[in-house]
Amino acid sequence: RLKARYAFIKGQLYEQRGDADLAYGAYKKAKKLSPDYELKFNAELNEMKLSYKNGKISVDKALQKLEKMEKDVKNADFRDQIYFTRAQIRLNSNDIENAILDFEEAIAATGGNQSVKLEAYYKLAELLYEQEAYREAKANYDNALKAMPATDSRFKRVDRLTRNLSDIAKNIELIEHQDSLLRLSRMSNEELKEFAQNKLTEIKEQQALMAAEEPVAQ
Q1: What single string gives the DSSP state of each residue in 142-208?
Q2: Which residue in 17, 19, 76, 111 is deepest, having the highest Cβ count within 10 Å?
Q3: Radius of gyration of the chain (CA)
Q4: The most confident of 27-36, 111-120, 181-190, by mean pLDDT
Q5: What is the pLDDT of residue 206?
Q6: Could you give the CA distance from residue 57 to residue 84 in angstroms, rounded to a whole number?
Q7: Residues sharing a CB contact under 8 Å with residue 120, sequence separation 6 or more, in sequence order
Q8: Geometric angle at alpha carbon 57, from 54 and 60, rounded to 5°
Q9: pLDDT averaged over the chain?
């Protein structure tokens, strides 16, 4: 058990240093030695991620393996880590759109694993920032900052970004509000009536959905 743990830590250190081959070997060793399922599972995830990065397997093969792991009942509590790994593989293959969706799934699936939640919020914020989706990026930076210890090397940068993006987000909301008012001012009475009816229907549907999701009192 101790040897497996040391091998896993070595893998993490090699990965941080950018030595994918040595990291891959260390994770493989950790998986082989570990009697604990959780460590073995995490070693396999990291090994798979690096397998694609090292060109040992294709993206499709890696995603197929992750899908198989997701369906395994033993991994029900680890689905957030599976989605996070899937997002990283898609990100490395430049599939930004699906990587964003997978990071969102990882966040939705997290239970008590604050580490996965933090990293998913951070990665998602960075991707949205690059896509110039500043309001959405700010929301994710905010959530990342709440989960991030002040000792984290990224803390000051994320804190600065959340403050800087506050004004940008407010300006975007103001512009969108003004655009909406401008569009409404150009509508005929019939179009305004139809718009209002559609909005009312949308609100009623949302209220019905919220009521259906509320727990029934015992």
Answers
A1: HHHHHHS-TTSTTHHHHHHHHHHHHHHHHHHHHHHHHHHHHHHHTS-HHHHHHHHHHHHHHHHHHHH
A2: 19
A3: 22
A4: 27-36
A5: 73
A6: 18
A7: 80, 84, 87, 103, 104, 106, 107, 110
A8: 125
A9: 84
Vertex 181, ends 176 and 187: CA angle to 5°? 130
Predicted confidence at residue 209, as pLDDT, reads 66
User: What is d(CA 210, CA 204) in angstroms, rounded to the nearest whole number?
Assistant: 10
What length does the chain have?
A: 218
- Predicted confidence band at 202 (pLDDT cuts at 50, 70, 90)? confident
- With tokens 């950018």, the residue in question is 18
Burial 168-179 (b: 16+ CB within 10 A, else e): ebeeeeeeeeee
Tokens for 2?
Answer: 């101790």
Q: How far is CA 210 from CA 29, 124, 206, 207, 218, in A?
A: 49, 27, 6, 5, 18
Residue with tokens 């990965």: 15
- DSSP for 76-111, please give it: GGGHHHHHHHHHHHHHHTT-HHHHHHHHHHHHHH-S
Of 9-18, 106-115, 166-175, 182-191, the least confident: 166-175
Q: Environment class of residue 129 by beta-carbon count within 10 Å: exposed (0-12), middle (13-18) or buried (19+)?
A: middle
What is the DSSP-derived secondary structure letter of residue 217?
Answer: P
Q: Which amino acid is at 72?
A: D
